[in-house]
Every structure is written in structure tokens, then in C-alpha cells.
């Protein structure tokens, strides 16, 4: 049986959300028994590790934990980005060398289609597969910033690093992980490891269908996406059949009680985890008293335009 190797990186704060992501993958897999999760654990507590294992095993998947320490990584941090964000760049070093391909997922997402479809997409010889980041692509100011900081030419795609298909053979051969970290450390990029990845892999990555990483500018159909024909067409196609719903950005679904389409999917898959009886919501200090009413309204806006234009 051909194993599908999927990697997450997390500390204890995100253990529950990692379990939700795992549950969504397994619930939508035609063959969950083929899936093995490799969890890069930055001090996930034993109790929560057990909950993750129970969640995965109940849904017929496999899981292994690999202990890592983000403090050992030399990388530029700022704002809400910690060194834990760089753990994905050590995958080629900490996984067994017998594993030559993985899918990496952030923990703030759910997968809504059979992950084997993503696994089977050809990278056409590239070391990396990813989807465009419409949050960057829609903004003239941000595209200019990426030109100035990365040398990314106007019109050249920029990808989001929350979903990555990685050819580990090439990563090990070229030491790509260390190369990205060195670039970020040297240049203090605004978007940290994501900028570093885009710098190192410029013109050397496979652009996978947008539906495999649908982020807020797409599932909320931001005005700047709507007004650019090239982006609008791809966004409408992606939200018609999203394969990955990714809460990239500041607003996270678990910080609010169940309330509308913005966080419905998170609560749906939480039910299938061993964290289902945990106290909810879990707002961070700076989100106390805030609501997701605007996010829900924006999703209704997206649904309206999908009906009109889709």
C-alpha cells in the first residue's frame, strides 16, 4: 500500500486545531488507512498527544510524533510570528530519509476533499507545489513590496505557504530548508518564511489549483479580487468546490462561538475529535469582545457574487 505522508508542525497551543485538521482529512479520504501523519511536536503535552492519537486512530489513520524545538532554529520573528513557523523548513532533516514526498498543512485549516487527489498531482519535476496567495496578488502595494524585497517581477505568481507539496529528495539534495532560513534571517522579510520560500523557489515551483488553499481573500471574495478578471475567475472556480478552507489571517474560527459560515466547518470537524468536549471558544487576549459578524457578511457577499457570476 502506498502511504500518503502528511506533516503538521505544532506546539501545545495548537494541538486541538491540529486534531480538527486531521479529522477533516480522514473523514474525506476514500482510503484513510493509507494516510500517515507526522507531527513535528514543539512540546505538545502528553495528554494532548494522546487525544490526537485517539482522534486519528478512531478515523483509521496513522500518526507519529517527532520531537522538535523551535528555540534551536535561527530565524527572524516579529508580530504574531514565532520561530515555530519555521519548523516546516526542517521536514527534510527530521523525517526518515525513506520518505521522499510529503504534503505539509498549516493547522488553521480543514480539508474538504480526498487528499489523495492532491497527493497524485504531478509536480512536473519541481521541488515544491503550492497555490497562489491572492492576499498578495490582489494588492498593487504588496506586489510592489515583493518586487522590492524579493525581486519578484510584476505578474510573477506568489504562493501561500500553508499548503505545500514537497519533493524531499530535492530538498535534501539542495538543502532548501537551510537556504530559506538563511535568506529570512539575512533580509528580515516582512512575511518571514513565506517570503523566504518565494525567494528561494522563484520560478521553480508548481502552481497547484487554487481550490487546494482557499484563504479569506478568496472565500470572502474581496473587492480587489472581484475587480481583477484574472483573479475573479479563479476565485469563483475555487469557492465553487473548495478542497482546503484555510483561515489564514488574524481571525481564527476557534476564537468565537459557533456563528455562521465563517467557523461552521471548524465546529463540524471538532465533533469528530477527542477535543470535542473542550471548553469553547478559545479567544486570544487581543480578540476578547470582538465578533465575526463582518466575516460572515463578507462570506454572504461572496455567495451572492458566486450566484451572479458563477
What does this structure look like?
By secondary structure, the protein is an alpha/beta fold. 39% of the residues lie in helices and 16% in strands. It has 14 helices and nine strands. A seven-stranded mixed sheet has the order 3-2-1-4-7-6-8, sandwiched between helices. Helix 1 links the parallel strand 1 and strand 2. The relative contact order is 0.14. The model has no long low-confidence stretch (mean pLDDT 94).
SSE layout:
Elements: E1 4-11, H1 15-27, E2 35-42, H2 46-58, E3 62-67, H3 91-94, E4 101-105, E5 109-111, H4 115-119, E6 128-132, H5 134-137, H6 140-150, E7 159-167, H7 168-174, H8 176-187, H9 192-200, E8 206-207, H10 216-219, H11 223-226, H12 229-240, E9 244-246, H13 264-270, H14 293-309
Parallel strand pairs: 1-2, 1-4, 2-3, 6-8
Antiparallel strand pairs: 4-7, 5-9, 6-7
Major sheet: arrangement of strands: 3-2-1-4-7-6-8
Tally of separate helices: 14
As a percent range, the share of strand residues is 15-25%
The biggest sheet, with number of strands, parallel, antiparallel or mixed sense and barrel status, is: 7 strands, mixed
* Rg (C-alpha, Å): 19 Å
Query: What structural category arises from helix and sheet content?
Result: alpha/beta
- Form type: globular
Model regions low in confidence, pLDDT < 50 over at least 5 residues: none
What is the average per-residue confidence, as pLDDT, rounded to a whole number?
Answer: 94
Pattern of helices and strands? EHEHEHEEHEHHEHHHEHHHEHH
Amino acid at each position: 500500500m502506498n502511504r500518503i505522508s502528511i506533516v503538521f508542525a505544532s506546539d501545545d497551543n495548537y494541538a486541538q486545531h491540529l486534531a480538527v485538521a486531521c479529522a477533516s482529512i480522514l473523514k474525506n479520504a476514500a482510503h484513510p488507512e493509507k494516510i500517515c501523519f507526522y507531527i513535528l511536536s514543539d512540546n505538545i503535552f502528553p495528554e494532548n498527544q494522546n487525544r490526537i492519537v485517539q482522534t486519528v486512530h478512531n478515523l483509521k489513520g496513522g500518526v507519529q510524533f517527532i520531537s522538535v524545538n523551535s528555540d534551536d532554529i535561527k530565524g527572524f520573528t516579529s508580530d504574531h510570528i514565532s520561530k515555530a513557523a519555521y519548523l516546516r523548513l526542517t521536514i527534510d532533516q527530521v523525517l526518515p530519509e525513506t520518505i521522499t514526498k510529503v504534503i505539509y498543512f498549516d493547522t488553521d485549516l480543514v480539508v474538504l476533499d480526498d487528499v489523495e487527489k492532491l497527493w497524485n498531482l504531478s509536480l512536473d519535476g519541481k521541488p515544491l507545489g503550492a497555490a497562489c496567495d491572492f492576499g498578495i496578488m490582489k494588492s498593487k502595494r504588496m506586489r510592489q513590496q515583493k518586487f522590492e524585497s524579493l525581486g519578484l517581477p510584476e505578474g510573477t505568481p506568489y504562493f501561500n505557504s500553508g499548503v505545500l507539496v514537497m519533493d524531499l529528495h530535492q530538498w535534501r539534495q539542495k538543502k532548501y530548508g537551510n537556504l530559506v532560513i538563511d535568506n529570512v534571517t539575512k533580509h528580515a522579510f516582512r512575511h518571514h518564511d513565506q517570503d523566504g520560500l518565494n525567494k528561494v523557489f522563484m520560478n521553480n515551483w508548481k502552481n497547484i489549483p487554487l481550490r487546494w488553499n482557499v484563504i479569506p481573500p478568496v472565500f470572502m471574495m474581496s473587492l480587489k479580487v472581484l475587480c481583477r478578471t484574472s483573479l475573479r475567475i479563479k476565485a469563483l472556480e475555487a469557492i465553487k468546490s473548495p478542497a482546503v478552507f484555510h483561515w489564514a489571517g488574524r481571525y481564527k474560527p476557534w476564537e468565537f462561538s459557533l456563528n455562521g459560515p465563517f467557523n461552521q466547518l471548524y465546529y463540524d470537524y471538532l465533533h469528530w475529535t477527542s477535543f470535542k468536549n473542550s471548553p469553547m471558544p478559545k479567544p486570544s487576549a487581543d480578540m476578547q469582545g470582538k465578533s465575526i459578524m463582518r466575516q460572515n457578511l463578507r462570506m454572504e457577499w461572496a455567495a451572492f457574487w458566486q450566484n451572479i457570476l458563477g
